[in-house]
Design goal:
By secondary structure, this protein is of the alpha+beta class. Helix content is 34%, strand content 18%. The structure holds fe (ii) ion (FE2).
Length: 340
Amino acid sequence: MGSLSTVPNQVSNALRTLAGVAAYMKDGRTPNFAYQSMLQLFCATGGVSNDAMSSFIGLMNRPYQFQDACGALGDFSEADIESIGSDIEDKGYHVFKQRLPDGLCDELLQYATTMPCVRRGTDGEGKTDTRLERFPREKPDGVRYDFSEEELINHPLIQKLMADRSFIAIAQRYLRAQPIIDVVAMWWNVVSARPDKGAAQFWHFDMDRIKWLKFFVYLTDVQPENGPHSFVSGSHRNGGISSDLLQKGYSRLSDEEVSSHYSPDKFIEFSAPRGTVIAEDTRGLHKGKHLTKGDRLIFQMQFSNSLFGGDYPKSTIRNAQSPQLAEMMTGYPRLYSHYT
Ligand SMILES: [Fe+2]
């Protein structure tokens, strides 16, 4: 980043971000210059700029009142939600005691072995994606295979998860604002000769939004050799990523670059059985460890406090097949405002 870290540059970035916020409030789109300025401010302030914007968003979009916080993660009391929210604030992640039921994992696994997917081009291939009729589980030759968000959000079981108040209440507590679901994803990772940058197998922080919480759901058992999701505990906090690393900007980092900045006990590898759910603020440093054996199927849902940030195509909920989703879309429209 070099000279970009000077005070006049950051004043300029702050003004450009504010101009972008005004444009976003008018037509719901973030100008790219404003998104880039937000990123540079994050790197310069270590996260203070994002928190300041989040405080404002929380005031403008006060949390919803739900009749309960009951769902696939448990039947949470207010004290449970507070405790889990504090845990995420402290460490940057929380692993839920309750796992998703086997039946749900089986159905999503069935989907992931029979439905079309996209083989993501590897680093060495120039990132050319290829559409496939189904995931070649017996003989994969890529590193990551993604399912279409548009298809996922029209699947009744996934719609039920999108309407699940145990997920939503935790996200809302962490964001301290009405949440918006803005990523629903599912993908396979498979064995590869080396870690792949495009498949997020190098350390990095995410910065598509101002504040967000991701839920990762393992749909296959994940052992140390099957690519456990990995996180640097505490690195999501303001100043949690050292300025040396932030000076490299929004980039992928090697194990060597990161290991010298944190004690070994901060590196968390989530080896866990299928059905395990991890909530994580991926503003902290994270990666998917590269696989040396087998494969890994993962489902992900992200909740953000605003859609300000990266400009991503919107998918369409063609039909709310799940009655739970139909009810939640009527009662809490901001939650689903990313989808048309
Ligand atoms: Fe990431």
